[in-house]
Design brief:
Shape: elongated
Strand content: 15-25%
Helix content: 40-55%
Number of strands: 13
CATH superfamily of the largest domain: Histidine kinase-like ATPase, C-terminal domain
Number of helices: 13
CATH class of the largest domain: Alpha Beta
Distance between the termini: 82 Å
Number of domains: 4
Strand order of the largest sheet: 2-1-5-4-3
CATH topology of the largest domain: Heat Shock Protein 90
Order of helices and strands: HHHEEHHHEEEHHEHEEHEEHHEEEH
CATH architecture of the largest domain: 2-Layer Sandwich
Length: 439
Amino acid sequence: MPESWRKLLVGLTLFLGAGMAIGWLYDRPETGLLIAALIALAWQVRQLLAFDRALRTRNFEAFRYGDGIWEQIFARFVFHSERSLRHKRRYRELLREIRKSTDAMPDGAVVIDTNNEIVMSNRAAKQLAGLRPKKDRGQRVDNILRDPGLTALLQSGDSEASIEIASPVRVGDWLNCRVVPYGADQKMLLLRDVTDRLRLNKMRRDFVANASHELRSPLTVISGYLDSIAEEPEFEEWRMPIAQMQSQAQRMQQIIAELMELSRLESAGRAGTRDVVDVAGLIASSVKAVQSRGTTPAIHVEADRRLKIRGNGTQIESVITNLVSNAARHTPEDGSITVRWEASGKSGLLSVEDTGEGIAAEHIPRLTERFFRVDRGRSRDDGGVGLGLAIVKHILSRHDANLSIDSTPGVGSAFRCEFPKDRVELEETAEAALKSAEG
C-alpha cells in the first residue's frame, strides 16, 4: 500500500475515533461518529473542488508541497502531463519530418484509411493530381480521383498491381497508381507521372507499325523476283544462294507479320465476349498445322470439347499455335508434347507441356519480352524470332487471362494459360441433357 494511502487511512481512523470518543462523553457515540464522518467528507469535497479549480486555472500552488493524498495526486498528474507533452512534442517532430520527407518525394503520396479517406498527402500529390492537403483531408480519394480502375485497385488490396489513369490536372498526362500497405490500418496511394514513358511507348509502337508496313511492300517485290529467278534454268549455278535469299526473305516476312500483329495487339482494347470459341477444335487445327511443317515429336491432346471461351477465336488460335510451335522447336523427335484444355475450378486452363531441353530459372521472367531468345543461335536456325511469347502475353491480357511458366533444364517446360470464369462456358452435351430431363 502506498505511504500516502496509509497516512490517509490512519488519519481518517483517528479522526473518526476522536469524534466517537467525544460523542461517548455525552452518551451519544453514534452522533459523534456521524459528525466526524461528515466533517471528513466535507474536507475531502473541499479539496476536490479546490483541485478542480486548480485544473481549470492551472494554479497548483496549494498542492505543490506536503505529502497528503491530494499532493500525491497532483504529483502524479504533473508526471503524466509532462510525459504526454513530451510524447506530443516528439509526435509533432516526427510528423514534421515525415511531411518533409514525403514533400521531397518526386512521386505523389496519399495516406488513406480503411474507408479510403485521405489522412494526409504530400506536395507532389497536389501537383500531379490536384489534391489539397488540408481541404481534402477526410474525403474519399475515389470521390476526388474518379476512375473505375482506381476504385477496383483500392478494393482489390493487391500491392503488386498498378494502373494508369488520366491526370485530373493536365490534359494528355497520365498517372501510374499503386496502393501499398502503410501502418496497421492505413494504405498509401503512390502516384507517378508516366506521361513520357507512355508517349515513348506510343512512338515506339507507331515506328514499328509504320516501319513494318513500309518494309512489307519492297520485301514482297524482292521475294517475287527471287521466285522468278529461281525458276529460270540459266541461273542453275545460283540455285543455292537464291534459295538462301528466299529463306531469309521469308524469315523477314514472318518478322514483319508478327511485328504488325504485336503492334495491333498493343493498341487494341479488351477482347469482346460475344463470340463463343471452340478451343478443342482450334487445338486440333493448330496441332495439325504444326505437324505439317516437318518432323515433330509426338503430340498428345487432351481437350474437353464442352469447354468454350468467349473471346476472339483468331487470337486464341494464335496463342495455341505459338505455344505448340515453341514446344516443337525445343523438344527432340523422341520427346513428347501434351496439350490440355480442361476446367480448373471455375476457370479454364490451357496447358502445353513438353519433355524438351527446358529453360533456366533466370531466363523465365524475360521469356515474354520481344526478341528475347534463350539460345539465339538455335532459335535463328529453327526460324524463331523471339516474338511468339510476346504475342501470347498480349493476347492473354486482352482476354483477362494469366500466363505461368514452369521449367526445369533437361526435363521440360510447361506453359499454362488460365482464363477467368466469366470467359469460360461449359456446354451440356445432348446425352447429359437427356439424362437430366429423364431424371
